[in-house]
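ok so i was messing around last nite and threw this chain in just to see what happens. nothing serious, just curious
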Amino acid sequence: MKLKEISEILSLPLEGDGEIEIKGISSLDSAKEGDISFFSDPKLKSLLDSTKASALIIPEDFPFNRLPVLRAKNPYLEFAKLMAIFYPPPKFRPGIHPTAIVSESSSIHPSVHIGAFVFIGERVSIGENTVIMPHTFIGDDVKIGSNCMIYPNVTIRERVKIGERVIIHSGAVIGSDGFGYLKKEDGSYFKIPQIGTVVIEDDVEIGANTTVDRATIGETRIGRGTKLDNLIQIGHNVKIGENTIMAAQTGIAGSTEIGKGVAMGGQVGIADHLKIGDFTIIAAKTGVASNIQPNSIIAGYPEMDMKVWRRVQVSLLRVPELIRDVREIKERLGIEKKENKE
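result:
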């Protein structure tokens, strides 16, 4: 593909020789002749002199003329679009594998691909161009929209509703029972029936081995455009707003409401029945035990404002020195000796 063709596809202005043949894409440091790369991080500026790439995607106002370039407001985003062009997703033939078990009461669009050893229960509905990969279980009365990708070994329990263009990675469990028990007088536990469901809205992506529990009553809901990393636990009756993103090993306890546009680092823990405001940023390993106002930036355990947390961390580094100072002062005043005698 010629560079000028890429310029036209991405609608980006071209500077330099547009006849160059682009054969691949790569990072600045590993690019070879015929590759196109991108530059957006000032920390990597030194690589611009040594990269072997034949062309670059660079910021609109960045001075550079050693190689032909495409100028972009967001070079990384345009490079990501180009990755999808050079490496399109695999295409799947429509049809149902002979080893799959599909209930006759289910409604499967003719364009759907159903892989080997898939189980599809009663009254399931699956929209056009959706792909169900091998060894996936889909329970009764599940509804799955069009253009979804369900990877191998996914479990989707009964009555779950999944929107369009949803991606669910291997090992995920959608609609498992919520963690609900009542302690009886004899000390044993009574399991509360989990009769609710899960709703996954459009354009959601759910990572490998992530679990989304069904509601006790009502629904657990994942909002449109939200992205969940691997190994995340979403408790019963949790509601997550649109375009929220969560990194791996985060856990959200039951009935908590997460706003839209929230970003969470890895290993965040959020207690039950809380409200996390829109556009909040939560640093990795934060433990949240109270409601959070919109647009907050928090960290630590228990959670606190990020600026306060940073001061706390700096202060903690001084604790050994402070202990030594206090000990010396007590020795000079003879306080420690008196305390020992007492």
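not much to say yet. The first helix runs from residue 3 to 10.
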